[in-house]
Amino acid sequence: MKDASGRLQYLTVVGYKDNAFSNKIDSYRALINPDKYTQNYEIGFNEEQGIGTSNASIKYKKSAPQGVTFELIFDGTGILSSSRTDVQAEITKFKKIAYDYNGEIHKPNYVKLIWGKGLSFPCQLTSLSINYTLFKSDGSPLRAKASVSFKEYQNPKKVAAHADPKSPDMTHEWVVRAGDNLPMLAHRIYGDSSQYLKVAAFNKLDNFRYLVPGTTIYFPPLV
User: Fold this and answer.
1) Distance between CA 71 and CA 11 in Å, rounded?
2) Is a pLDDT exceeding 70 seen at residue 132?
3) What CATH fold (topology level) applies to the domain 164-219?
């Protein structure tokens, strides 16, 4: 992956102490970019069987955090880099950023995967498997391949907002009924009728005092 000037962009794993991803600890730049990465999505359902029937239906339960998996190459032969030839030191640095327990936050670090403009993924490491494939005469590793899996970090407040269909942090839509007015609808959605001016501006309403029945009104998230 290259930037606008044509320079090669390397996958970088950045460690943070906080879930706002603002307090950076350190970063690890891949020696060679993965030839691919996989994004995993999963939706959970509950099976429900009606009384007197042998057939089951499924009911939405939740959407799991997105996952990303790929392989990292650690190489100490000097072919890829003449300055990064200590495979064990490279692995130790990666583990310190993404895997090791951080006593300050009582868990491994939060991390963000960054690769040019194609990937910016706040997450935490969930799996690390290292396969050593080449060794020096003294048994120390010269090459290794790590299979890594990460799960998307989701802010608990945003997760709760998505779980609550009445949350003011979600975009809502409403089909106007006879007798509806914007302050009343703003109070219904936000619990604050004074937000009606924002709703009127968002929907580009010329006359917000009269709403045409059957019209769809959109209520944006409060920020």
Assistant:
1) 11
2) yes
3) Membrane-bound Lytic Murein Transglycosylase D; Chain A (3.10.350)
- Closest alpha carbon to 87 in 115, 10, 95: 95
Which is it for strands 43-49 and 12-16: parallel, antiparallel or unpaired? unpaired
Residue 1 pLDDT > 80 = no
Q: By three-state DSSP, how is residue 182 classified?
A: helix
Task: Give the pLDDT score at 4.
Answer: 59
Strand partners, 38: 69
Q: Indicate the CATH number of 12-154 among 2.60.40.10, 2.40.30.200, 3.40.50.2300, 2.160.10.10.
A: 2.40.30.200
Q: Rounded to the nearest 5°, which phi and psi values hold at 41?
A: -125, 145
pLDDT in tens, 157-197: 665 555 554 555 566 788 888 888 999 998 888 888 999 99
Pairing of β 37-40 and β 43-49: unpaired
Overall average pLDDT of the 125-133 stretch: 98
Are the C-beta atoms of 146 and 128 separated by less than 8 Å? yes
Residues 45, 97: Cα–Cα separation, whole Å = 35
pTM of the predicted structure, to 2 decimals: 0.68
